[in-house]
Each structure stands twice: as C-alpha cells, then as structure tokens.
Write a structure and sequence with these properties.
alpha+beta, six-stranded antiparallel beta sheet, 22% helix, globular, binds beta-D-glucopyranose
Length: 874
C-alpha cells in the first residue's frame, strides 16, 4: 500500500517569536540596487522579506523617502512617508512628492511580521538623472568627419576644480559607442555602452559617480567614440550600412560637480573640447577592430597633454528627440577564460582553444617588433587541418574588399618596449577558437591570449541539478547561449547576424526569466518594440531595425514578442508595467491581424523554422500564436478594468479557436492536421485546444513521440511547445525521454558531441543554418524548472506570490533540484528517490505560499520548508 506523507517542517528557530527574525533585504529601485540616473518619475521600490519562521507573512509596510539619509534612517522623509500600510505588497510604486532631477533619495522600509510586530529597518537609495531633456546643458559634438572615415575619434578637454567636491556625476549620451576616461583612467566597468536602440527615435544616456576620479586643480576628460550599430561600416545582411540614422558618432556630456559649499558647476561638451583620430583605425560591431599602436598618443587623456595639433570639434544636432536613462543591467566581461588547449602551428601561426563557445572578445599580450601585424581570427570550429574555420558563420558577411575580414581583429605593434597589450573595445564575436597570425615571428604562450565572455550582466536567478549529467550540461549550454545572445536586446546569434530576431527571443524569454533576473533588459526591449511599431500595428521581424523586416518574417509566430514578453514579465514579477505600456501596441497588433484575416485563421509567418523533418502549415502555427496574443490581450483588459475590450477579445479568441478546430482537428483519428509533434504540440502549448478534446490530442502526441522513437521532430516553434505540451498533460515521463535523449536528433546529441552552447540545426554536420550559438531551441531551459522541478508561477497570484509546485518523478532520473529566485526570494523544489520512496523538499519564500501537487496528493503551504516522503511502502 502506498502512503503519502508530506509535512510542513519547522525550521531551526521556528519557535522563536519576535520581529528580530524579520528584516527587509534585497532593496531595489526599478529592479536595480541603489541605482544612479533614474528617469522614472514614479519609480518602483521593491524588497524581499527575510524571515526564517514557518508561514512568515508581511502584514504591513512603512516607507520613508527623503534626501537626508540621517533623517530617513531615523524614520522621517521629506519626499514620502506612507505611514503604516496594511499590505503584503513588496513592490510599491512611489507616489510621494515630485522627484527632482540630479537628486539622491534615500529610502527606508520597515515591515510588519506575521504577528504585526515591526522588523528592523533597511535602507536603500536611488538617484534621479536628467528626467527631462531640457535639463541637459552640453551640446552634441562630433569630429566633423564623414561617416565613411574609418579611424575612431578621440575627444579631450581640461578644466579646473578650485573647491572641494562632495559629489560628481558624469551624464553621457552617445550615438555610437564610447569609452570615457578621467585623468587617464577608464570610468566604470561597462562594455559596449550605450545599448543599441533605434537611434533616430530614442537614445540612452549613462550616469557615473566620478567623485573619486577627480582631483583638486586641473582635470582631463577623455572620450573615444566607436561606431556600434550607429555607423555600420561593414557590409552584411539586412543592410545596416544603409541605416537611415547612420552618421559619424557624436556625443553630449554633462559633468555635474557639487561642491562642499553647496554650489554646482557643470562641465559640458562644446567648443572647449578638441578632437583627433585615435589608434583605433577601424571598428565594427559586426566584424572586428583594427588598432595601430604606432599611432598611439600617450597621455592624450591626461592633464598637460599638448593638443595644439588637435582639431576643433563641430556641433551636431541631437540624433533623437528622446534621450532617456539607461536603467538596466550593463554589458560586462562576466567571465575571463584562459586557453584550454594551445597549438603552435608555426612561429607565425598559433591556435587557442578557449574550451567553450562564447560571445565576447579576446585580448593579447605580446612582445615584438614595431610594425608587426597581428591578426586574430575568431571562429566556433576548426577545420580538419587545425585552422579556425568560419564557414558555418560567415554566410551573411558581404565584404566589398579584403580590408574588413570577418570576426578578425588586427593589431599592429607599436614602439613600446616589452609586452604590449590589446583588446578590442567596440565589437564582439562568437567563438571558441582564436587563431593568431603574425607578420613576423614572435613567441606566444598559452597565457598570451585570454577571452572575455561579454553579455548583459543580468543577475543569476535560478539553477537546476539532476542525476543526469547530460541534462545538467544541456541546462548549462542553454544558459550559455541565452547569455551569448543578450546584449541590451536579445539576439539570434553572436556571430553571423547579432540581430534582435523576435522569434528567437519569444522562444527564449521563459528560459531567460527562470534563470536570470532580466526584467531591465526586457523592459528596454519592449520600448524598442514601441519605437518600431507602425501605426497600423505591424512590427518588424528584427528589433531594433534599420527599416528592414517589415516585409519578411514578421508574422505572429515571430513578433508576438509584443504580447508574450510583457505577459511573462507579469507572471514572473507580478508587475503590470510592461503589459500596461504595451497594451495599446498589442491591441493594434491584434486588430491588424483581425482586419487582414477576418475568418480567424492567419497564414502570416515563417512557420516551424528548421524542422527535423516534418513541415507544418504556417497557418497552423501562426494561428496558435495569434490566439495566444488575443488571450493575453483579453486577460490584460480584465486586469486593467477594460471590460468592453475583455469581452471583445474573448469573443475574438473563440472565433479563432472555432475556425482552427474546424479546419485542423480531425476527430477520427483524433489529431490536428497530420498529427506531427509540432502539429499537436503547438496547439496544446498555446491553449487553443478545446477542453473536450485536450486529452485526446495529448494522447495522440504521446503516440507520435513514441512512433518517432522518442526523438524530436520539431523546428523552432515545435521546440517551444513539445516538452510542456507533454508534461502539462500528464506525460512528463515522455517529455523526459525526449529531453534526455542522446542520439540524433536531440539536445543531448549536441552535448555528447562536445557542445557547450545550443545549435541552430539538429544535425551536427548540417550544411546550412549552422550557427553553433543559437537560443532558438532553448525552451528546454524553462521546461527543466517546470516539467521536472515543477515550479510555476500562478497567473492568479503572479510574481510567485503563490507558487505552483508540481514536480514529476520521471522514470530514469533519481534526483532533481530546481531553485528560482522570484520577487519574494528563493523557491526550491528537490526530490530524490530513496529505497523507501521519493523524498521531496519544497522551500517557499517568506510572504508567499504554494500549492504542492504530487500524484494523488495536493496541499496548500505557507512560507518555509515542507518536506517528506512520497510513495513510501509500509
Ligand atoms: C536567424 C534566426 C531567425 C531567422 C528567421 C535567421 O537568420 O538566425 O534565428 O529567427 O533567421 O527566419
């Protein structure tokens, strides 16, 4: 006889009473810790509650916001005092007095614990930025060169500081990319700033605290501008060299100095700056960077440098009217890799294997004669003779001459004695291997080349660990590809295109949100969507775009990002901001499809991209996405109290479902269309299947998967759906057999063949579509949390306010653990097969609750640890 035992366990300290156990932690403003340069007039404040007691709840909060930290700490604020608010909310929108630009605010939160006793206080801060474009003081400047000029421009100015500075902030807005230095030292640790936007519509500015970088007396500001996506000089697919915004990079900067006597002075961009060409003789976000160290100007960004030979800067008009704070996780060099294998082919040719595939840059340290040319060629694989092979990734590169080689940096050694160092500043590549060609012999060692993994540095928010090493490696590879494709916007691949392909991002968003705290990047990308949407609702297939993509690839199977991502942000964060900002955009989008396809079925789209073998009618998959968008809109309408819209879109959804069922459901033998994995999985996943036939459709899918030998037969859209369609319908074991498969076609097939990232095509020897770092087959990363760990947000209480925990103890796996940090803290579900049953442990963070669902058992639990044994034999 089976017995199911699952009990809330009292944690150590569980009996202790008193609010000393309770404190607010992880204070954030706009999802950032103590941010500088916030433009949001009503910023969002959030915290977690740290309270180890079983069933811990927040019964009230008290917020104080003010400019005087001592007073705020003491509980009084000149901007906002909420008083005691009986509420369990841990995400609160500021509604105090109007916030002032350039002003630092401190905030203090005190919570009431389950018994209503006050917690210890916690403090955070946020500082407002420009807030309004009229607050800028400087002018936009450039070096006046034409956009075809290749060397990157330096800019410099000097100024005097005569009084004691208490605070200094640099605000810099750039069309292009930049490196800022003060008195010869680089400012900050961001890379590739600012993030890519549709430059003629919206530009981002970055704020730095530079108080410690300045000195009394003379100071020097130095700026180096790169091209980025603003001045795309390389020729490649989608014509970024013809972008309407394309121009020579330009910038505007205000350095705001606050002195001890309370006075403020602003050093600005203007005719007090001078410019000269730098040793960065060419730079392309797409292909590489060329640096001629013989052209270095030592001391160019330090006081006293003789700039008499430098030119005057020229004024430029602001490239866009909207210039807003870059309030998001920046790109950083998150990991630095040493070579795992080093091969000396000759004294002028060396190959470095960095051990894993990444997006980023390599750097070199080398001693050699001035004028020696170092070519660093990057690729994802080697040819049979051991050289870097770019043939899988250079298909969209359209060179007009040989001056701009693909994924190649060119470094010319200067006169300096000893070891010289180079790293590119204004581009990145996708690679595992670096081949270094030298024009003259020089000795390189394994340590001469290092690789930096660059990506938007979003905090990790989850992990999984299982008894199956291949599965764990699939998870790691999924994260590697996700991060390799996150550069302030989600991309398809870091080498061949680097484009914001909407379809790939829609597929990856849930995987991203389980694994990383990426809301800041997604909210920015949703603003990019709003910039790009046509008045009639149409979106381009790549975002941001130079104008390409309104004609191809932009049906609902790709551009439903406008609905799916805001909805996922709502589910994962319990925050309606993106959904409400995009509401009208989703509505226009849906209305556009309804106008074009009044019958409810739409054939607009690309379909199940790169399938294993079976092709699916585009109308089948696109209609499911269209249905999903309409349902999101209907639910959003209900949330925002738009009753008429809610009714209208529910009715539209029903129309779509009816048309879809009538055309594609064949009740005998009980399949959609021809019953392939995609044809059954996609309707099941997106919820268009009527309840009355859901069980039959799911059973048909299981039969299909078995008939396919538990191997995948899906493309991009089918991959998104297949595992969840199975596990959400009672077939987690079948899903696991697919997920853990190690022969072709499967994720495991890549892994057992050495993959450290996900690929673009199922065969490892495919002849086309063979990027080795695509995220488009990456939904498995989300499924691991859901299908095995069972952790799911509850749409009725989003943001993991209430968690559904429904783990599946699948055959063939002896243990599994998933952890996800949601807005309330860490949720954990771990299970392990023991001799006498399966032990299960679930941790629910303070101030939230969960429904634990096990086969034949369902229980409601509050915060804390619940554990026990399931299926124990007596
Ligand atoms: C990209 C894909 C993208 C597709 C659209 C490709 O070139 O790399 O991932 O979604 O085009 O068809």
């Amino acid at each position: 006889m089976l017995k199911k035992i699952l009990l809330p366990l009292l944690l150590a300290g569980g009996f202790r009473a008193g609010a000393a156990d309770c404190r607010p932690t992880h204070l954030q403003c706009e999802y950032l810790t103590d941010p500088l340069g916030i433009d949001a007039p009503a910023p969002r404040l959030s915290w977690e509650m740290d309270d180890p007691r079983q069933g811990a709840r927040q019964t009230w909060y008290r917020l104080v916001v003010g400019t005087d930290s001592v007073r705020v700490m003491a509980g009084s604020g000149d901007a906002w005092q909420t008083g005691t608010v009986p509420s369990d909310a841990q995400l609160v929108v500021y509604t105090g007095a109007g916030l002032r630009p350039f002003t630092k605010y401190y905030w203090r939160v005190v919570l009431g614990d389950s018994a209503g006793l006050a917690s210890a206080p916690a403090m955070g801060s946020f500082e407002m930025g420009m807030m309004d474009r009229r607050n800028w003081r400087g002018g936009w400047i450039s070096d006046g060169n034409d956009r075809t000029v290749k060397p990157a421009p330096y800019f410099r100015t000097e100024f005097s500081v005569g009084k004691r500075i208490v605070s200094a902030r640099a605000y810099i807005a750039v069309a292009g990319l930049y490196e800022l230095s003060i008195n010869g030292r680089p400012v900050g640790d961001h890379r590739l700033d600012p993030m890519y936007t549709r430059f003629d519509r919206r530009l981002l500015y970055v704020t730095y605290d530079v108080t410690a970088d300045l000195q009394e007396g003379r100071n020097c500001l130095g700026v180096l501008l790169g091209n980025g996506w603003y001045n795309h000089q390389s020729t490649a697919v989608w014509h970024f060299d013809k972008a309407p915004w394309r121009n020579r990079p330009a910038f505007c900067m205000d350095l705001r100095l606050t002195y001890a006597d309370g006075s403020v002075e602003t050093v600005t961009t203007g005719k007090n700056w001078k410019t000269a060409l730098s040793p960065v003789v060419f730079n392309s976000i797409y292909t590489g960077e060329h640096y001629d160290a013989r052209k270095e100007l030592p001391g160019w960004n330090t006081v006293g440098f003789n700039d008499t030979a430098w030119k005057e800067v020229v004024w430029r008009s602001a490239p866009a009217e909207t210039i807003v704070a870059q309030a998001m996780a920046p790109i950083r060099a998150a990991v630095v890799l040493q070579a795992r294998k080093f091969t000396r082919i000759s004294d002028t040719d060396y190959v470095y294997d960095m051990g894993r595939n990444i997006a980023g840059v390599s750097s070199i340290a080398i001693a050699g004669e001035a004028g020696t040319v170092v070519r660093m060629v990057h690729g994802e694989r080697l040819s049979a003779d051991g050289h870097v092979d770019q043939s899988n990734i250079n298909v969209h590169y359209r060179p007009t001459d040989d001056s701009d080689p693909f994924q190649t940096d060119i470094y010319v050694l200067g006169k300096a004695d000893g070891v010289q160092r180079f790293h590119p500043r204004f581009g990145y590549k996708g690679f595992q291997y670096v081949e270094v060609f030298l024009s003259r012999p020089a000795v390189l060692t394994p340590a001469s080349v290092e690789a930096s993994f660059l990506h938007s540095d979003v905090p990790a928010a989850g992990s999984v660990a299982s008894g199956n090493p291949t599965l764990d490696k699939i998870w790691e590879a999924t994260n590697n590809s996700y991060l390799s494709n996150l550069f302030g916007y989600p991309t398809d691949c870091p080498q061949r295109e680097k484009n914001g392909w909407t379809g790939d991002a829609a597929i990856a968003s849930e995987t991203g949100l389980y694994n990383f705290d990426g809301i800041t990047v997604y909210e920015k990308w949703m603003a990019d969507h709003r910039d790009e949407q046509q008045p009639n609702g149409v979106l381009p297939s790549i975002i941001p775009t130079d104008g390409w993509g309104y004609e191809w690839g932009n049906g609902p199977d790709w551009t439903s990002t406008i609905a799916i991502i805001p909805w996922n942000l709502y589910l994962f964060y319990g925050d309606t901001t993106a959904l409400s900002r995009c509401y009208d955009n989703i509505r226009r989008y849906v209305e556009h499809i309804d106008e074009g396809y009044p019958g409810g079925l739409t054939s607009w789209g690309l379909g199940d991209w790169i399938p294993v073998k079976t092709k699916t009618p585009v109308e089948l998959t696109s209609t499911c996405y269209y249905y999903a968008d309409v349902m999101i809109l209907a639910k959003a309408a209900a949330l925002f109290g738009r009753t008429a819209d809610h009714q209208r879109y529910l009715a539209l959804a029903e129309k779509i479902r009816a048309a879809f069922t009538a055309k594609y459901w064949h009740s005998s033998p009980g399949i959609y269309d021809e019953g392939s994995q995609t044809q059954l999985g996609v309707p099941l996943y997106w919820g268009i299947v009527p309840d009355s036939i859901q069980a039959r459709a799911a059973a048909a899918l299981v039969r299909r998967v078995a008939a396919d030998g538990y191997h995948l037969d899906v493309g991009l859209l089918g991959t998104k759906a297949i595992l969840d369609a199975l596990s959400e319908n009672g077939y987690a074991g079948t899903a696991y057999r697919l997920a853990a498969q190690e022969t072709y076609p499967s994720w495991g097939w890549w892994i057992v063949n050495g993959a450290t990232t996900l690929y673009e095509n199922w065969p490892i020897d495919a002849k086309s579509d063979i990027s080795m770092n695509h995220i488009m087959f990456g939904q498995i990363g989300a499924w691991l949390y859901k299908g095995l760990g069972g952790i799911r947000p509850d749409p009725a209480e989003p943001g993991f306010r209430h968690v559904i925990v429904e783990p599946h103890f699948v055959a063939g796996l002896d243990h599994f653990e998933a952890r996800h940090r949601g807005p309330y803290g860490f949720i954990r579900c771990a299970w392990r097969r023991e001799k006498r049953g399966v032990t299960v442990e679930v941790v629910v963070p303070p101030n939230s609750s969960a429904t634990i669902v096990l086969p034949g058992k369902r229980m409601e639990v509050g915060a804390g640890l619940t554990g026990g044994s399931w299926g124990r034999r007596r």
